[in-house]
Specification:
It catalyses: S-ubiquitinyl-[E2 ubiquitin-conjugating enzyme]-L-cysteine + [acceptor protein]-L-lysine = [E2 ubiquitin-conjugating enzyme]-L-cysteine + N(6)-ubiquitinyl-[acceptor protein]-L-lysine. Its EC number is 2.3.2.26. Helices cover about 50% and strands about 5% of the residues. It contains 60 helices and 22 strands. The strands form 7 sheets. Strands 5-6-10-9-8-7-11 form a 7-stranded mixed β-barrel. The longest helix has about 35 residues.
Length: about 1400
């Protein structure tokens, strides 16, 4: 080598080797520094602890969330344990699982299971045994044996040592301890060396596994031998001794990396991993151990392990034995998560790992169970393992607690309870359950230093309760706790005389358990809201099946907006009802559901649009117990009657109320505030949205809801004569609900007269008014009812003054309230910082000496509802709620007395009134659906049908369509189909029709298989998108493609007021079948989208299209074509044909309409058999009709002898034969939205005329109706000059340019026709009702054009300065063209 002289060879080699050695050392140091930095970062990361404290679990005696099991339950568990010892095998484990449900805190049951199980399952049971009873030597023995089987020898040695300390003479413990007495010297150091050697040798593998694109089945197949060797080493490290692992943070770091690497391998290539690698089972077992101990190091370890097991369990290509093992290990680990007692940290959300940011295991368990049962995953094998696993029902029990009281994600629970065998085990269990985590109110932060002082806790709690358990019990919604914090801050600020507006809220220190904010009196009215408030007692213990039913019902009531949960919850309740071992679970459900009455109200609404809810309702109506079934049917009728109540009934009884309601404006609730009312701005930096939160806007806890419902639905106990009241349920509704019927009427009577009534209105009594609820809450004994609870009427003076905050010292010390009826607005209660619910507000008025309180609802829907207690003490004065309108009238009657007349219904032979009055609005469509469900009340249905308006029938039809198209097949949540249309609004009519044909050929747009999903329309060159654009497009193609006479598709006989299918179409249009199918699909889409089409079909066509029987079709020829009936038919029948002077052919003209250019003409006479096939072809030919006529019979001419035959054939042709084939093609397209079964169902509710009205709306515009149902926002009011000028322009157009009105309506709403019912039924975003709105647009210049927001029926009005400018701009706006959906178009039109 000439470039390397020999004399320099040795020095160069030495230098090179030195350099290589130095590089290796530097690389090693760098890697070490990198790991150290990574370790430090992990240690400094929030919430990262290498060894979390052991918080224990919920089965420990001080942490058990319910009452201790009864003696009978313990004896039953013992019997099952004895039976299990005789059976052995899987049956024994099942019996022991049932025993654990009866007595969850019995350590001996877990010991017995540990002896029958192996490895991980045995370790779970043994650890549970020694955690409950640390003095169980046998438990320590089984724990050590299980650890030894898992190769955790050091852990096993410690367990055997602990057992020997308790039982030194036990021979098994001595034998096992002797085996482990002489461990290998320096075993800990050897383990560490092996661990890090393995880690350093597997760096390349870890880097590969971190890339999902590289880790796949092909990678595993090609590297199976090497991977198997490496995984054998990793499997050993996954079975690490916990005492060694927790001893070193570096070991924990390495353990986390190995768990993550193994989890990624399993997740990315489950099939090849389970089939090609020999150590796959050891890896799965190691991941299951990581699942259990991961939370003690970092939640990411446990979450990665859980994710891998879920992927493996639900992978169809993976080996079945490993899939089943993964399901069992996952369920066991998640049960341990649910029993973990660690508190939730103060931060709202944790670090997101594997798509889960839950910082505590008892919430994360619900997330991962939901993934296991995720729709679309294979369920058969998972279902089998869940049903055969002995602790599935126990898992459901603790999962219910996490979901219900901890607000964890609920889908996993309801999915699990749908499995038949799981439901059977739950319903068969005799265990009685009352588990509940109380939502105490604490400070925002919890810390060991703050709460370790036991003397600071409330007296009612166990003084040995650790601080972290108190924190865990503080599962109050964070918004609620934040509001309490702000309220306490405001009170502290008031007490110190500070100004919240200038300095912001006064900081309040974190209040420890039971502590008070300094400077505030706990017993006084200014006490801190952060103080401990005792919870109402939870519901009484129930059998496990009933407890699960009620818990599901509670979740169903308060979880809104989750369609899949609604489906799953209804199916789970139905599965529980059908799984009763006695065969009458429906009756058992009706009797056991203490929340059945409010549940029926929610269920009935869900049943309108949800098949699963309707199935559950039908299931309950099939109860075998006659009394329970009769109670439910009575409740259904009662609810239907309440829903069908007219809203205007109260107004009819009001009498002369004009003097009080003159200045009342429902659209402007701000006007109801007095001028000196405190505004939210006075609160400085406090968030306004939280201050608007009120107790009735939050979800009550399990116990709070039972307490409130008991106050609402308690009635006298007539069975045993005891003073303890009963609760009205669905099972006893028929006999008990009538005892709750209480009605109140408020009369404003002139002070100087005994009989002159100035105003009358209905009032809803508060929940505490009833005499049967007169119970002393302190002693629990019946007390003497107050006079108001027994008197039928009392007359008092009126007092109303919202000038000071309700509950304040000034309010309480105001002597003007003495023995008066105090009027109080709901807004004043909500804006006050001194009271937080109805009962506190009424109590403050009582303290001021008031005799009665009348609250008027000046918020939300302005309707009255029943006021609850929210856990407060019963006020000693009654309270009532009236509507906002009635409240304004009573406030105006200051010179009057108030006379409140109350009546209580003690018995009734008819349907009792619905007892819940919580702000429910009339819904006749829902009432109809309820009465349909009980199906044998035709008289009531007919009576209800007579009262239903067409808009209400539209509501019924829309809900029925939603129920049909949103039906979840096999529990799978299907993604809504997407149909997309790119349209061109400037195409000629022929091109528009051809574009629709092309959509059908390509199965896009209207031709898509499913048009009931997401239907999106975009106009070429425009930016607008949304439901209003779709409405505009449907209106456009209806006019341009179907109403054009030259296209020979629709024809009118009444000057284009209504349309019929053109009889000539099958003779002249080679694509007539496709065209009419498109038309039918358009009609269905319009009904689905609640769109009013400019396509008024004749009612007779609607009757044929919807398949009405002939008996319900009464259309005559005169209804179709009055001129033909009068000038031809009537004349022929009354006169001789000789007077005609010419021969009349026995045929009917196909019509002389506007002809298209070109095309071959039809023959002069055609027959019905000459109609074209209408096959779909690439090119459509349209022939000219001209003077062609269709032969009605074989006769050539009409004579006096056959003219009656001619008339009958003519009528039959015009009304049936000429349109039957076209209607049949339309029905095929309509079936995409409305199948024949639904069209048949509509016959009992809708007439053909009403269907035509639903489709095309009203033919004329009423400006008065338009103006009366419009609203003004963003600084505009009815009196604003811009608004008055707007209606002046509209009324001018109505007189001079009427064609401008439909253009304006379409510009703002997307539709040129008014829906049936008038402007009150105007449709906006996604088919929902939206009032026509004029909004102030101060951001626009006075010379700008108005801008429309069609999805919300809103027109932004610039600040015009005079009428002429506005009229010019509005005219210019409409005449610029139709590009008004482009948001930029309005801006471009500015001058």
């Amino acid at each position: 080598m000439p470039w390397l002289p020999e004399r320099h060879l040795i020095p160069r080699l030495v230098g090179l080797s030195t350099t290589l050695w130095l590089c290796c050392k530097v690389g090693s140091w760098v890697r070490g520094l990198g790991r150290l930095g990574s370790l430090l970062l992990r240690l400094l990361r929030p919430g990262r602890l290498w060894r979390c404290p052991d918080y224990g679990h919920l089965l420990m005696v001080p942490l058990y969330p319910g009452n201790p099991p009864s003696t009978e339950a313990a004896q039953g568990a013992q019997r099952l344990a004895e039976e299990a010892l005789q059976l052995g095998g899987p049956e024994a484990l099942q019996r022991l699982g049932e025993a654990v449900l009866l007595n969850p805190t019995d350590a001996q049951l877990y010991l017995a299971r540990a002896k029958l199980s192996s490895k991980v399952q045995a370790l779970d049971d043994a650890e549970m045994c020694v955690s409950i009873d640390a003095k169980s030597a046998e438990g320590w023995l089984e724990k050590g044996k299980a650890e030894l089987a898992l190769s955790r020898s050091i852990d096993a040695a410690q367990s055997f040592t602990a057992g020997l300390q308790l039982a030194p003479e036990d021979p098994q413990l001595q034998r096992y301890a002797a085996l482990r007495a002489e461990p290998t010297p320096n075993i800990l150091q050897q383990f560490k060396d092996l661990f890090f050697t393995a880690r350093l040798g597997l760096e390349n593998l870890f880097r590969t596994l971190e890339d999902p694109t590289k880790t796949n089945d092909a990678f595993v197949e090609s590297n199976a031998a090497v991977l198997d060797t490496q995984l054998g080493l990793l499997a050993q490290t996954l079975h690490v001794n916990t005492c060694v692992l927790f001893d070193s943070s570096r070991l924990c770091d390495a353990y986390e990396q190995i768990v993550r690497a193994c989890a990624q391998l399993v997740s990315n290539a489950p099939a090849s991993f389970s089939r090609r690698l020999q150590h796959a089972e050891n890896i799965v077992e190691g991941l299951s151990l990581a699942l259990r101990i991961g939370w003690h190091i970092h939640h990411g370890i446990a979450k990665h392990a859980a994710t891998a097991l879920i992927v493996l369990a639900t992978s169809p290509g993976a080996a079945e034995p490993l899939r089943r093992l993964a399901v069992r290990q996952l369920l066991g680990g998640l049960l341990r998560w649910l029993l973990d007692a660690r508190p939730e940290p103060d931060r709202e959300e944790g670090e997101e790992i594997c798509g889960c940011n839950c910082p505590v295991p008892w919430k994360a368990a619900a997330c991962f169970l939901e993934r296991l049962f995720e729709p679309g995953r294979p369920q058969a094998l998972v279902q089998q393992e869940c049903e055969n696993w002995p602790d599935t029902v126990q898992l459901c029990q603790w999962l219910t607690l996490s979901v219900r009281d901890y607000h964890a994600t609920p889908l996993g629970l309801v999915a699990l309870l749908q499995f038949p065998k799981v439901a059977q085990q739950a319903m068969r269990s005799l265990a009685k359950v009352d588990f509940f985590i109380a939502p105490h109110i604490f400070g925002e932060d919890f810390g060991e230093d703050d709460l370790e002082d036991e003397s600071e806790g409330p007296e009612d709690l166990d003084p040995d309760l650790p601080w972290w358990r108190a924190a865990q019990m503080s599962r109050q919604p964070r918004a609620w706790r934040h509001v309490r914090f702000l309220e306490a801050a405001a009170q502290a600020n008031d007490a110190t005389g500070g100004s919240a507006s200038s300095a912001g809220p006064v900081p309040v220190p974190a209040a420890p358990f039971g502590a008070q904010v300094p400077g505030l009196d706990v017993e006084g009215r200014d006490a801190s809201m952060l103080r401990w408030i005792p919870d109402p007692p939870p519901p009484p213990p129930q059998r496990l099946g009933e407890w699960l039913m009620n818990s599901l019902g509670y979740l169903f009531l308060f979880i809104e907006g989750d369609a899949l949960f609604t489906v799953y919850a209804c199916r789970a309740l139905q599965a529980l009802a059908k799984a009763d071992p006695e065969g009458d679970g429906e009756s058992r459900l009706l009797r056991g559901l203490w929340l059945g009455v409010p549940l029926l109200s929610k269920l009935s609404l869900a049943a309108c649009t949800n098949t699963a809810a309707l199935d559950l309702l039908h299931c309950l109506l099939g109860a075998k117990c006659p009394s329970a079934r009769a109670g439910l049917r009575s409740a259904v009728r009662s609810l239907a009657m309440a829903l069908a109540t007219e809203d205007g009934a109260r107004e009819d009884a009001a009498g002369t109320a004009d003097m009080a309601a003159a200045n009342f404006s429902p659209g402007a609730p701000e006007a109801l505030l007095p001028p000196d009312a405190p505004m939210r701005e006075d609160l400085g930096d406090m968030p306004n949205n939280l201050l608007l939160t009120h107790d009735d806007d939050l979800v009550p806890s399990w116990a709070e809801f039972h307490h409130e419902l008991f106050q609402e639905l308690a009635c006298p106990n007539s069975r045993d004569g005891s003073s303890t009241p009963d609760l009205v349920t669905l099972a006893n509704f028929e006999t008990k609900a009538s005892l709750l019927a209480e009605h109140a009427t408020v009369h404003a009577v002139a002070s100087d007269s005994e009989r002159t009534v100035r105003y009358t209105c209905s009032a809803v009594p508060a929940a505490w008014n009833r005499s049967m609820l007169s119970i002393d809450v302190d002693t629990g004994e019946a007390s003497t009812p107050e006079p108001w609870q027994t008197a039928s009427a009392q007359r008092l003076k009126v007092f109303h003054d919202d000038g000071c905050a309700v509950g304040s010292d000034e309010y309480v010390q105001d002597t003007r309230k003495q023995n008066k009826a105090v009027l109080m607005s709901r807004r004043s209660i909500r804006s006050s910082h001194k009271v937080h619910n109805w009962a506190q507000a009424v109590a403050s008025a009582e303290e001021a000496g008031a005799g009665v309180v009348v609250v008027f609802n000046d918020l939300d829907a302005l309707e009255p509802f029943r006021m609850g207690l929210f856990g407060e003490k019963l006020p000693n004065i009654p309270a009532f709620m009236v509507s906002g309108k009635d409240g304004q009238a009573l406030c105006a009657a200051r010179d009057c007395d108030i006379l409140i007349v109350r009546s209580v219904l003690t018995s009734s032979s008819t349907t009792p009134p619905w007892p819940l009055a919580g702000g429910r609005l009339a819904d006749i469509a829902q009432a109809w659906s309820l009465l349909e469900a009980i199906s044998d009340h035709d008289g009531e249905l007919e009576e209800l049908l007579q009262r239903m308006s067409v808009p209400e029938k539209r509501v019924w039809m829309t809900r029925r369509l939603v129920r049909h198209h949103r039906h979840q097949a096999e529990g799978e949540e299907l993604e809504p189909a997407l149909a997309f249309v790119e349209a061109d609004r400037w195409l000629a009519p022929e091109k528009q029709l051809e574009a629709l044909r092309q959509q059908f050929r390509e199965q896009t747009g209207l031709g898509a298989p499913d048009v009931c999903g997401e239907f999106e329309v975009r106009f070429r060159g425009e930016q607008g998108v949304g439901s209003a654009v779709a409405r505009e497009w449907m209106d456009l193609i209806a006019r341009e493609a179907f109403l054009q006479p030259k296209l020979r598709l629709l024809r009118s006989f009444d000057q284009r007021q209504t349309f019929w299918p053109d009889a000539a179409a099958p003779f002249c249009n080679s694509c007539w079948k496709m065209d009419y199918e498109i038309l039918g699909c358009l009609v269905g889409l319009a009904l689905w989208q609640n769109c009013t089409l400019d396509l008024p079909l004749h009612p007779h066509v609607c009757a044929l299209l919807f398949g009405f029987p002939e008996g319900k079709i009464s259309t005559s020829l005169a209804d179709m074509d009055p001129d033909l009936q009068k000038n031809k038919v009537d004349w022929l029948l009354a006169n001789s044909l000789e007077q005609l002077g010419i021969d009349l052919s026995f045929s009917d003209p196909l019509g002389v309409e506007e002809e298209s250019e070109g095309g071959e003409p039809l023959p002069a006479l055609v027959r019905a058999d000459d109609r074209l096939a209408g096959a779909e072809t690439e090119s459509c030919v349209l022939r000219r009709v001209g003077a062609a006529e269709v032969a009605l019979a074989d006769e050539d001419t009409v004579t006096d002898q056959n003219k009656e035959l001619f008339v009958s054939r003519l009528v039959e042709w015009r009304l049936q034969q000429s349109v039957s084939l076209q209607v049949e093609a339309m029905a095929k397209g309509l079936s995409k939205v409305l199948p024949a079964s639904l069209r048949q169902e509509m016959h009992s509710l809708l007439t053909p005329l009403e269907i035509a009205q639903l489709l095309s709306g009203l033919g004329s515009l009423s400006v008065d109706d338009w103006e009366s149902h419009s609203v003004c926002t963003h600084g505009l009011s009815k009196e604003s000059p811009v608004v008055q000028w707007f209606w002046q322009v509209v009324r001018g157009w109505a007189k001079e340019e009427e064609a401008m009105l439909p253009q304006l309506l379409q510009f703002v709403t997307g539709s040129a026709r008014v829906p049936v019912g008038g402007f009150s039924e105007l449709v906006g975003f996604n088919g929902a009702k939206h009032a026509f709105t004029l909004a102030g647009a101060s951001h626009l210049s006075p010379q700008a054009l108005p801008v429309a927001h069609t999805c919300i029926c809103t027109l932004d009005m610039p600040p015009y300065t005079d009428f002429e400018t506005m009229r010019h701009k509005m005219t210019q706006m409409l005449r610029l063209g139709r590009a008004h959906f482009d948001e930029g178009a309005g801006q471009a039109g500015q001058e």
